[in-house]
Amino acid sequence: MPRIPLAPVALITAALLAVAGCGTTDRPGGDRDGTTVTGTVTVFAAASLTSAFTTIGTQFEAAHPGVVVRFNFAGSSGLATQITEGAPADVFAAADPATMARVTEAGAAEGPPTTFVRNQLVVAVAPGNPKRITGLADLTRPDVQVALCAEQVPCGAAARRALAAADVDVEVTAVTLERDVKGALAKVTLGEVDAALVYRTDVRAAEKVDGVEFPESGAAINDYPIVGLADAPNPTGAREFVAYVLSEPGRTVLTRAGFQTP
Predict the structure, then answer these.
(1) Where are the beta strands (DSSP E) in 167-209?
(2) Is the separation of the CB atoms in 198 and 124 below 8 Å?
(3) CA 97 to CA 146: how far, in whole Å?
């Protein structure tokens, strides 16, 4: 039987590299530049991102079969403390730059954060707005009980900026200070208070609440930064998840949730 001459090793190697190059992609949600994401990606994210990031996490897992995205949703301030004290995480998404600064100044961030969305406050009320609340001044009425976020978390700091802009003091009627925006909203849905200052996106995602817009919310717009972490157990997963959030599919999810893009 005639023997077929073997191609030189260099030619075979070049051919294999060419084939591999045709298989790489640079699409949002896919492996970029041949990067393969594996394992678990742990994301610490502000409570107000719960609904949108849960959807993004599902899409990211679909784009990277076998990868698992695990979330820790809570008040940004508490998450920043966990990160600076060494909690293992790959990505941090905060609800304001001041909280993110605590992480970057501690040297816990891998590079500079990127602002990916913005959010504004509304007054959350029971369906039909039974107390007829039309603005921040109504929150001082003796028959209106209010829930606020604690000042240490971004939604609390934003609420106080808005109240200051309206020259309104609701401390006398605030019956509870919550650790995050989900806690403040729950007080309304459970009927424990008449109103709460929460993010517009949380009202949109919730059931059994209405939202009342007020002009002073423009004085309390929160920028949301995101960053991969310096000691990330899965640095490749961290980079790819941040890239997905910033991609067109990620932004589509966020804008549908009511967030504003920068």
Answers:
(1) 174-178, 195-199
(2) yes
(3) 26
Residue 245 has what DSSP assignment?
Answer: H
pTM of the model: 0.82
Q: Indicate if 121-220 has the same CATH topology as 36-118+223-256.
A: yes
> Starting from the edge strand earliest in sequence, which strands make up the sheet with 146-149, in order?
174-178, 146-149, 195-199, 121-125, 210-212
What distance in Å separates the CA atoms of residue 259 and residue 122, rounded to the nearest whole number? 13
| 121-220 CATH, one of 2.40.40.20, 3.40.50.970, 3.40.190.10, 3.40.50.2300 | 3.40.190.10
- Please name the fold of domain 36-118+223-256: D-Maltodextrin-Binding Protein; domain 2 (3.40.190)
Of the listed ranges 2-6, 73-77, 256-260, the least confidently predicted one is 2-6
